[in-house]
Amino acid sequence: xxxxxxxxxxxxxxxxxxxxxxxxxxxxxxxxxxxxxxxxxxxxxxxxxxxxxxxxxxxxxxxxxxxxxxxxxxxxxxxxxxxxxxxxxxxxxxxxxxxxxxxxxxxxxxxxxxxxxxxxxxxxxxxxxxxxxxxxxxxxxxxxxxxxxxxxxxxxxxxxxxxxxxxxxxxxxxxxxxxxxxxxxxxxxxxxxxxxxxxxxxxxxxxxxxxxxxxxxxxxxxxxxxxxxxxxxxxxxxxxxxxxxxxxxxxxxxxxxxxxxxxxxxxxxxxxxxxxxxxxxxxxxxxxxxxxxxxxxxxxxxxxxxxxxxxxxxxxxxxxxxxxxxxxxxxxxxxxxxxxxxxxxxxxxxxxxxxxxxxxxxxxxxxxxxxxxxxxxxxxxxxxxxxxxxxxxxxxxxxxxxxxxxxxxxxxxxxxxxxxxxxxxxxxxxxxxxxxxxxxxxxxxxxx
Length: 448
What we know:
The protein is an alpha/beta fold. It has two domains: about 5-150, Cobalamin-binding domain (Rossmann fold, 3-Layer(aba) Sandwich); about 180-445, Alpha-Beta Barrel (TIM Barrel), CATH 3.20.20.70. About 40% of the residues lie in helices and about 15% in strands. It has helices at about 20-30, 50-60, 85-95, 105-110, 115-120, 130-140, 170-180, 200-205, 215-225, 245-255, 275-280, 295-300, 310-320, 340-350, 370-375, 400-410, 420-430, 440-445, and strands spanning about 5-10, 35-40, 65, 100-105, 125, 150, 185, 190, 210, 230-235, 260-265, 285-290, 325-330, 355-360, 360-365, 390, 415. The strands form four sheets. It has a seven-stranded parallel sheet with strand order 7-10-11-12-13-14-17. Strands 2-1-3-4-5-6 form a six-stranded parallel sheet, sandwiched between helices. The protein has a two-stranded antiparallel ribbon with strand order 8-9. Strand 13, helix 14 and strand 14 (about 355-360) form a beta-alpha-beta unit. Helix 10 (about 245-255) packs parallel to helix 11 (about 275-280) and helix 14 runs parallel beside helix 16 (about 400-410). It is globular, with a radius of gyration of 22 Å.
């Protein structure tokens, strides 16, 4: 059996710090296979290299796994939002501390495996779900069986009933609770939607793979009992599914009377008053809505599968249930014109009791419909690298005009956030005064 040192390289905190759930799941799988595992979070350690030096030297690993969550911050207005340069520096530093093989993984790595491996200089990388592939890789290496630099996980995606519970680290949990007042959990993988810009179907499959709702709520109960966690964020691509599995989870939380608070990503389509009521009774206290565009024409351009009337309806349901909502909207996508920008801003103005985060341009990711379209429109060629951010802007409008219109449309409203970095700045200021949690929960809270 081997000693395996896992590192979460993510240091992004916008809009909130996110517990490294992927690392925790891989750690659990490795332990189940008899290995000794240490988890090191570069964010929790405040990127302190001295702490990393000590941890690696004391643990003396046989293998070092490094998880990459994001390539960049998908914000076209940011000058310093590319994270791979930090990963490269981390890999280089680790190699000065240990001769053990370095193995990359994580959702970001799976998007551009060859380019990221070559750029960072790591020894190996695992594409896809790592909880089965990594132990298989370790077993082969222990038997001196040569392995390829890039190992692609089995074509068979892990069924929901075979997904294991994370190996939660109490020190890390307490750090994230201190910073964001919540831990993270996953109830399913995959996404059946075909949004033009999104990489989820390529990474996790084109259908939902549900964990057993009982197993999910068991994890929630364990987090509360063993670690004192009372607030959660579900990190699924979308929490609400047409099959109603999300409501089964909510009903099980109610049945066990767990008294927890939770939030998640939602599609504005398919949320009913009754369903929202059930979720609120189970502890839902805020929602993040993947609205993504401001009017029907641009929603169709990115293949969202719903209309802005669905957005208005869901926002109104949240308002009536007194559940704070945040909308994330991208301007500049396929079909965007000055007229659709203005229509989108008018539509956003009509959304009451909610926070809106706006983005200018859409980050182009490999294998997406938007990537294909960008090549056809000569925004880039099929040989251009996407290692560094490339953004799609509709040829029908200039990016500078989009930015100016958003700034003018949002004015000085505190519940309209643009550019996205403004939200992170505001969160840091609030944290200094002791506020923890979701920004929109604070901004929309009643004032005495």
